[in-house]
Amino acid sequence: MKTTVICALLSVLCIGSANANALWDLYAGAVVGVGGATMFADDNTVSNDANSFGAVVGLDLPIVRAELEYNYMTADDFHASLGMLNGYVKLSPTFIVPYIGAGIGVAANGDLDGSATAYQGMLGLTIDLEILPLKFDVEGRVLYIPDYMEFANTEPDMLQYEGRAKIRYIF
Predict the structure, then answer these.
(1) Which of 43, 110, 134, 152 falls 20 to 30 Å from 165 in CA-CA distance?
(2) Domains of the chain listed by start with CATH number
């Protein structure tokens, strides 16, 4: 009997490392987005198509998720590098998990000679395939960067809106 109990405990401990992330998941992934961007100052606005792509690393807990994100955004008139710290709240623990999120970070224009604080909000769905170490996110994002760059003696704000797809590999 003692031998059976010891073998069972050792089996649980050895196999337990695969289940160690039952309460939390460390992940890394890639993100791509398509949408538009509007620069506005005073009564002038300029809108363009905008695309973004980037990488994320984070920690996924049962109700919340925290991640670091790098994005490179490009449009007709400008490009930017974004470094963001995001927080998410998951709304229901099912196969498809809706979530809402917010982030704050730094945006640097393409020449890296200026930066501004950036704010973003996200609303999306996570598709969790239990049989694969992958999660797929589909989300909408709105990004706001006040006083983004100096242009013709003005500092326009930028509002970027897009649909994004994200794939996350769970370690």
Answers:
(1) 110
(2) 23-170 (2.40.160.20)
Distance CA 32, CA 134 (A): 16
- Whole-angstrom Cα distance, residue 101 to residue 88? 4
Interatomic CA distance for residues 145 and 24, integer angstroms: 32
Q: Which of 31, 85, 86 is nearest to 54 (CA)?
A: 31
Q: What is the mean pLDDT of the chain?
A: 84
pLDDT grade, residue 164 (50/70/90)?
Answer: very high
Exposure pattern of 143-171 as b/e (b: 16+ CB <10 Å)?
bbbeebbeeeeeebebbbebebebebeee
Residue 136, class by beta-carbon neighbours within 10 Å (0-12 exposed, 13-18 middle, 19+ buried)? middle
How far, in Å, CA of 70 to CA of 83, rounded?
Answer: 5
